[in-house]
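Hey team,

Filing this mostly as a record. A colleague (T.K.) asked me to run one chain through the structure pipeline before their review meeting, and I want the input and output archived in the tracker in case anyone asks later how it was produced. No errors, nothing strange. Just documentation.

Input sequence:
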Amino acid sequence: MTQTTPSADQHQFVRASPWKRVFRIIRWTTYTFALVTLVLLLHKAPPPLVETSPQAAARAEGKFEQVEKAVASGQPATLRMDETELNSYLASHLALADKGGPNPAPTGGAQGAPSGAAPTPQEVEQMRSNVRDVKVQLIDDRVKAYVVFDVHGKDMTLQLEGRLGAQNGYLHFEPLSGQIGSLPIPQSTLESAVHRLMDSPENREKLKLPSEISDLRIENGEVVVGYK
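Output structure:
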């Protein structure tokens, strides 16, 4: 029987085939990972169960009026607001975009911020104008915000949990966890994004607290604001 010796081209094909298979596996794994990430990003997380009522909103209004009178008379005051009062007040005062209506026009044609960069004032304004819903949970000494916003006609959700406070006359937020859709945000990425946002010159002055506020914190599931 005559034995055929493989040619040089056949040897090259045999050597190359495993690498082609590895490349194909890597390529399809990348596609699958990208698809799963996209699905998780677009999967709208369910809203937290928070209570609101006109009575709670009226109580919050009354508390603000009492604090204003005390400050006007030169007296220190402390404002305490529970979760129901806070969400009721936000629901009655935040001008949120109507889900059934057209989206507000973007300011200055802003596009998405580059990875790792702080949003510009135009981008922050665009995100704010596209907010559909805001709900806040007060958990012990932490605050957890649930935000629904529109991205090109698709509702997406953002959840942030952390500690809120005052630092050198400015609002300070220490992020503990975050999630876009059903996709958790890595802690290092979250901290970097929040720090860049809060430390950027464009946003810094927007976070400055009124001079009469001496303290701000979450305590026993309540917002506590001290006025001097």
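Quick notes for T.K.: The first strand starts at residue 77 and ends at 82. The beta strands are 77-82, 131-139, 142-151, 154-167, 170-180, 183-184, 213-219, 222-227.
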